[in-house]
Amino acid sequence: MFLLILIFAPWAYGCTDPVTMGILNQFSAALMLFWLGGSVWRKRWPDLPWLPVTLVALVLLQGWWMTWNAHSVHQFRTWTTVNRVWDYPPFPDWPGAIDRRHAHLAMLNVTALAALFLFACDLMARPGWRKRVWCTMALTVASLALGGCLLKLAGPEARVWLWGKEVAKATTTFAAYRYHGNAASMLSMGLALAMGLLITAFAQQRAAARLAGWMGVLLMVLFGLFLNTSRAGWGLAILLGVLIGLRFLWAWWRTARDGFNWKAGFLQGLVLISVLGTLAMVGLSDDWKEKFKRISTASDSLQQRYPVEPYHDMAREVGWLGHGPDCFQMIMPLYMEVHGLEHKGFWRHAHNDYYEYLANWGRWGVVLWAVLIFGGLLRALGNHFRLPVTWGSTQWTVSYCGCAAMVGILVHARWDFPLEKASILLFFLTLLADGWARHGASPEASGGD
Deepest in the core among 100, 164, 351, 395, taking most CB within 10 A? Predict the structure, then answer.
């Protein structure tokens, strides 16, 4: 069922609207019922690491307290400004969310994702299931890339059934994602996993069909990144290529170069470079001048979406528990109005997840999230580098690629909001669970096939 949830989330509009978020929450509740019921039936509780369980419990405790003790709701005065309406909290002198409605909806989703994360911590401790999860994630992203490319090449008429007449005309949609930056984040995670699975298929040389299959998956995701109009996606592809390429080129040089057929490798390399070049040209052919212009104006675009003064004021004044889950969108108009920037539009998200998490969760909440995220990432990296180089090991190779994918998302979060979208956060937390699941894993389980 967890694998079905991984397939569902990206295709259900990325779980970015209340309806699909509600369905994801219901799937999570059903999975928890089966998981905990099965544990009771077997009389064996899941072996979960205590630290992430504690951190998740503290995050949920803070979020639900802020929701229960919410001080107000908001009504729009204009499309960019809001009025705050007092809501009579149980403890008015204690911290509470500034908007009850947004906090409540957000906490339902955060609770569902937290439950899926804990389930993944249990599941990813098993090498066989770990491989199934990685393959499912990579293939789901490849299907997303294929669908996005077909819809992009077919034009607005083909996208009407998915988005409606007006949105279908926009160039910033890709597959089931309304915003191309979110699609780029999802594609980048699939790219990293596909690279890892391709490397292991190449190293093991067991079946030509397997090697060709993962090569096709990788090229499909790359083509999606090229055809998507997000500059972040292009940057993430380069970053992942460097992080993964250098790591495994070094591993291959140390352990496997002696038996390598250089003539065959040279020819294979030429074919791969030719294919990648063709993909790049096809992806850029129709509007390549506009795409290169977008690359050259990236810094100006970042400055326009990044109102420095309101962000800095908000960061200085935020309390220990923040303004409440998903309440950034209600506090930001006040700061924009103070600085005379309300004409710049309504800011649903901060285009900087670090500022947005600080606004929503406060200083204490950000510490909890940071320990949860960076603790799992560092544990996964530590486990990878602690083990001897195992060329051809699926577990050893793809675990590092998962870490590279998480690094890419954390870099992207500096200029966008991938960690605010349920489907992306689900994939990210699943990779993070792999790191935390290594707490009691044997070297064979961590580095074997």
Answer: 395
